[in-house]
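Design job #97: recover the sequence.
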């Protein structure tokens, strides 16, 4: 790990009270070296959303996912357990699955055909009879931690991850009687955005831009009562909906926008859960995965209108985020300030980011001394 990242020092890592704080330096969004730093420090060390548990109904059902650039496959094994493996053959690094999802009796490498059982053990090794000092038991797939929560599946690349529940404590209680685990997966949309992933997250974490960027969304929400709450591992932006008719078919209701550090979002409206995983694909490219879930009995009309409305809002965010990435690249900009009323969520995210960078740097410094 490179320790000489630009503008990463005691001054920029210092945490000041919100009313006095500056935003993080522009280099953290625009310098290519932060891409690896973020993968290593944040994405490899946190629970990453894979998809709905309903995808893994039968033995051999699998889904592949890329986490921090690492290929991973999650599969339902013979015992009925969900297991995660690096999707990397132990022979010469070939892929076991190249599809995003499917059903497999066993995992066969797409390169020279080594086969692995669903418990990760190596089984078939063609033309290896004359290889000396080779024991198949030493060449099982490398495991990845898997957890489920509220009908969703997550993986974590850390060797001994903290339990997933710790990072989402209190969310089910806060949104009750709404119960995410009873919702049904409907579809996945993917957007590519030409900005650093932190630009997208910052933008998500404040309602400050709503009147300018999203007038239509602003009309749906009771914007005067929009609040941000922060917790140790996540933040919540909450707003009641405006009284009256809306596409969500309720005369009243609530919007909950949860952000779970570092890159997971739950957007909850009446009858609908939208899960976002924010995937940094390059220092200036981000993929945003949208999974839609609905309560049982939700009609096709609501699902269609929700899709159209969500897409309009998303495209407004994409456009502004791409402009912001250009602004951050400009010599005219380095660091800004926060509105304590409207941007506590952004500040909270940036404080968590600083804490994670700081921990990584002290580990690297200690390790290299
Ligand atoms: S790389 Fe998998 S069988 Fe050769
Ligand atoms: Fe937005």
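Job complete. Output follows.
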């Amino acid at each position: 790990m490179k320790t000489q990242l630009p503008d990463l020092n005691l001054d920029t890592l210092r945490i000041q009270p919100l009313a006095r704080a500056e935003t993080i330096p522009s280099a953290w969004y625009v310098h290519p070296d932060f891409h690896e730093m973020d993968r290593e420090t944040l994405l490899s060390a946190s629970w990453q959303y894979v998809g709905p548990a309903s995808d893994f109904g039968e033995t051999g059902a699998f889904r592949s996912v890329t986490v921090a650039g690492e290929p991973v496959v999650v599969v339902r094994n013979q015992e009925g357990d969900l297991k995660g493996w690096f999707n990397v053959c132990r022979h010469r690094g070939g892929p076991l699955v190249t599809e995003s999802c499917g059903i497999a009796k066993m995992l066969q490498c797409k390169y020279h055909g080594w086969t692995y059982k669903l418990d990760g053990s190596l089984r078939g090794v063609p033309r290896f009879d004359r290889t000396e000092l080779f024991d198949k038991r030493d060449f099982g797939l490398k495991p990845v931690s898997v957890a489920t929560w509220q009908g969703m599946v997550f993986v974590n690349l850390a060797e001994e991850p903290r339990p997933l529940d710790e990072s989402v404590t209190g969310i089910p209680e806060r949104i009750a009687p709404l119960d995410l685990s009873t919702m049904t997966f409907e579809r996945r949309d993917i957007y590519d955005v030409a900005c650093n992933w932190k630009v997208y997250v910052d933008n998500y974490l404040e309602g400050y831009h709503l009147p300018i960027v999203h007038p239509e969304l602003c009309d749906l929400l009771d914007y005067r009562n929009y609040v941000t709450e922060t917790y140790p591992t996540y933040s919540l932006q909450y707003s009641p909906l405006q009284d009256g008719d809306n596409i969500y078919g309720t005369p009243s209701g609530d919007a909950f926008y949860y952000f779970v550090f570092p890159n997971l979002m739950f957007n909850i409206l009446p009858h609908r859960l939208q899960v976002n995983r924010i995937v940094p694909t390059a220092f200036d490219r981000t993929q945003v995965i949208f999974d839609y879930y609905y309560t049982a009995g939700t009609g096709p009309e609501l699902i269609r209108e929700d899709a159209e409305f969500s897409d309009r809002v998303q495209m407004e965010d994409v456009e502004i985020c791409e402009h912001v990435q250009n602004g951050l690249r400009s010599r005219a900009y380095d660091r800004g300030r926060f509105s304590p009323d409207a941007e506590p969520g952004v500040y909270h995210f940036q404080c968590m980011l600083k804490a994670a960078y700081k921990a990584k740097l002290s580990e690297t410094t200690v390790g290299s001394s």
